[in-house]
Design a protein that fits this description.
The chain is an alpha+beta fold. About 55% of the residues lie in helices and about 15% in strands. It has a four-stranded antiparallel β-sheet with strand order 1-2-3-4.
């Protein structure tokens, strides 16, 4: 249950921050946080990561539904046997649902976190994207930890 709470908290923080950006800033408006390195920038994204596949909303919706169903199914299977993996899945779930809701309701995702590295500007992203990336990194870490420790999971125990 705690892993669904992690997903809910990630979702709520994502939606709250997007709401503030969408209602308080004009599109394209920027607020410097750390000089020119980190800015809050009101931006909309109709595509996936880095704006790829723009205009493919039904594809994103279908893929997200499949991913969310898969995460919920796997989370219910694995939560009693692991700790890091279900936490990671909770983060990915919260982020996926946050961006899914934006696409369903608005046809676009509100992005606002902008980082500049000299003349290079990293693609603008949001809290949901951060949760997904952190969750995937934790999934990889969990997998590497299992491989290094020689602990292969050959059976996933179902919990109720």
């Amino acid at each position: 249950m705690v892993y669904y709470l992690i997903a809910l908290i990630a979702f709520l923080i994502d939606q709250a921050t997007k709401y503030v950006i969408a209602t308080r800033l004009e599109l394209g408006e920027q607020i410097p946080v750390i000089g020119n390195f980190f800015l809050i920038t009101s931006h909309r994204n109709r595509g996936a990561a880095f704006g790829i596949l723009e205009g493919q909303q039904w594809f994103f919706i279908l893929v997200t539904i499949v991913v969310v169903v898969g995460i919920v199914w796997y989370l219910n299977k694995v939560k009693a046997t692991r700790k890091l993996l279900p936490t990671a899945l909770g983060l990915v779930l919260g982020g996926a649902v946050g961006n899914f809701l934006d696409r369903m309701l608005n046809g676009e995702v509100v992005d606002f976190l902008q980082f500049n590295f000299g003349s290079y500007t990293f693609p603008i992203f949001n809290v949901a994207d951060s949760c997904i990336v952190i969750g995937v990194a934790l999934i990889i870490l969990d997998s590497l930890r299992d491989m290094k420790g020689g602990e292969e999971i050959t059976e996933v125990k179902e919990t109720k």
